[in-house]
Write a structure and sequence with these properties.
alpha+beta; Creatine Amidinohydrolase, Chain A, domain 1; Creatine Amidinohydrolase; 2 domains; eight-stranded antiparallel β-sheet; six-stranded mixed β-sheet; 10 helices; 14 strands; about 20% strand
């Protein structure tokens, strides 16, 4: 299936974008974020590592400028009809061809929103873009416009997110069969990703995080594998992924007998997550979620062992990260509304005792209390 949504869904998204552009007095948008193009048109590629841009006018007219390698990809996966190709050659400057395309679309002198805050626009290309268009039109940073629209998920998106959450459960179930003394991180990782693929899912937008022993305190992927000891700790962060929609989970699993510190830190993680569920609902904002997390950690003397963020919005994302733009950190005034897909994680890394503890899963917000999307409970896992 080349497109994952019907034309009516795409039309609804375009209407929302046009309304937002009119509210911001924008005549056009230059989209560089691959997830924005995917959300608006279905265009599915990793070709955003090269220069490409989707031009969207306030009347709904669209035109894509991309490379020849992605022309068929765009025709096959998206609803885009007007596709132009810039040619790979020595000293090529695709921003000049973009300017010519904008001129052909009668956008000279217009107010144009640009998605600057994205991995789809490198610093080098951004300098070329600004240089080419500085006298062409009035460029505005509109990085958060579509990402803001994407926070509220449609019924069709929620269906995909629920499927992704089920695949995340499958991945944990597959891992638990292999987590034991003498177990291999390599086998565990292969089983988790294999379970997602076997269920019809996709590669995630970033690598799964796996680390045991001292590496359990890390919260980024790194190269290298380890064999589990008789008494060990294993931190996992992963996501089920379906049609690029993600549902993340996080656990620290104890092998053998948990230490008193493990039990203490687990209790704090569980308490903090349960307190957050009370504010993860309309009437609160993202900053309230972090403040709740920080308060519980401070009350238990763990401020120096916690992170400065405790989760983020999830949806359809592309490499290098499955995180959406809005995060739970201090002072974030983004309002929580129904039909948001939000990953909340508790991460405690006590380097003094080399003790790790994490706990987290994805919620769907409602008009009342949030709904956890995982079928797995939050109990401490001991193998």
């Amino acid at each position: 299936m080349a497109q994952h949504f019907d034309k009516e869904e795409f039309n609804w998204r375009m209407r929302r974008l046009i309304d937002a552009m009119q509210d911001n007095n924008l005549d056009a948008m230059l989209l560089f974020a691959q997830e924005s193009m995917y959300w608006l048109t279905g265009y599915d590629t990793f070709g955003f590592c090269f220069f490409q841009s989707l031009v969207v006018k306030s009347d709904g007219t669209m035109a894509l400028l991309t490379r020849s390698a992605d022309m068929r990809q765009a025709r096959h996966t998206s609803i885009i009809e007007n596709i132009s190709v810039w040619t790979d050659r020595a000293n090529a400057d695709p921003t000049m061809e973009l300017k010519n395309l904008l001129d052909d679309m009668d956008l000279l002198g217009c107010k144009i929103g640009v998605e600057y805050d994205t991995h789809g626009l490198t610093g080098s290309n951004c300098k070329k873009l600004d240089n080419q268009l500085q006298s062409f039109g009035d460029l505005q940073d509109a990085s958060g416009l579509i990402s803001g629209l994407r926070l509220i998920k449609s019924p069709a998106e929620i269906d995909y997110i629920r499927t992704a959450a089920s695949l995340a459960d499958d991945a944990l179930s597959a891992a638990l069969l292999l987590i034991k003394p003498g177990g291999s991180e390599a086998d565990i990782l292969a089983a988790m990703q294999g379970a997602v693929f076997a269920g019809g899912g996709d590669y995630p937008a970033n690598e799964y995080i796996i680390g045991s022993g001292n590496d359990a305190l890390l919260c980024r992927y790194k190269a290298g594998r380890r064999i589990l000891d008789d008494n060990d700790q294993l931190t996992l962060e992963w996501a089920g992924t379906y049609a690029h929609y993600h549902a993340a989970m996080m656990r620290t699993v104890i092998i053998g007998k948990p230490t008193e510190r493990h039990l203490e830190l687990y209790d704090v993680c569980r308490d903090a997550l349960e307190e957050i569920e009370k504010v993860l609902r309309p009437g609160h904002n993202f900053g309230d979620v972090f403040a709740t997390h920080a308060r519980v950690m401070e009350e238990r003397g763990l401020t120096r062992h916690r992170l400065n963020a405790c989760g983020y919005s999830l949806g359809a994302r592309f490499t290098p990260s499955w995180m959406e733009r809005e995060m739970f950190y201090s002072g974030n005034e983004q309002l929580i509304k129904a039909d948001m897909s939000l990953f909340v994680h508790m991460i405690i890394a006590d380097s003094e005792s080399n003790t790790a503890m994490t706990l987290g899963h994805t919620y769907l917000t409602t008009e009342d209390k949030p709904a956890a999307l995982s079928a797995h409970n939050l109990d401490l896992i001991v193998r």
